[in-house]
Design a protein that fits this description.
The chain has 151 residues and is an alpha+beta fold. The chain is built from three helices and eight strands; from the N terminus they run H-E-H-E-E-E-E-E-E-E-H.
């Protein structure tokens, strides 16, 4: 018998799979932070205001900053929106709709996080190798300098 389940009489956390409405800002952050390249559509009163493609540069929760979409970059503040609706378009492509009153910012991922993760691991490994080499060179230079000081 699992005593933890019986000891917690509150409702379980929601479980959403591919479709649903997310209101928790931390959940919104987790869903959006690894989107990468997206196609976006900004609608107001169900009328398209703008659309394009861009890259999600940053996802954050800060009441002092705006959500910004410009120059093919997106800086998304989850506090700019009431909720996030996720769903699928006809061809089984996932979309994320950030909603605030009569405004909707639809994000359709153009990149695959599974493929991107492999690339990130390679980039991290390459970066670590560069840093290790730079530190090693710096250490060698320090050792060389120690022998050149006058007594």
């Amino acid at each position: 018998m699992n005593h933890e389940c019986h000891g917690n009489l509150g409702l379980p956390a929601p479980c959403l799979v591919d479709v649903g409405t997310v209101v928790n800002k931390n959940d919104m952050l987790r869903l959006l932070q690894d989107l990468g390249q997206v196609r976006y559509t900004h609608t107001q009163d169900e009328r398209v205001v703008s659309e394009g493609e861009g890259y999600v540069m940053e996802v954050f929760a800060d009441p002092q900053q705006s959500t910004l979409v410009a120059n093919r970059t997106l800086y998304l503040n989850v506090l700019s929106f009431d909720c996030l609706e996720m769903g699928q378009i006809d061809d089984n492509q996932t979309h994320f709709d950030l909603i605030q009153d009569n405004r909707r910012l639809r994000l359709v991922p153009l990149s695959n996080p599974l493929q991107d993760q492999t690339g990130r691991n390679l980039n991290v490994a390459a970066f670590e190798a560069i840093v290790a080499e730079a530190l090693s060179a710096s250490w060698d230079a320090c050792l060389d300098d120690e022998g050149n000081f006058p007594d």
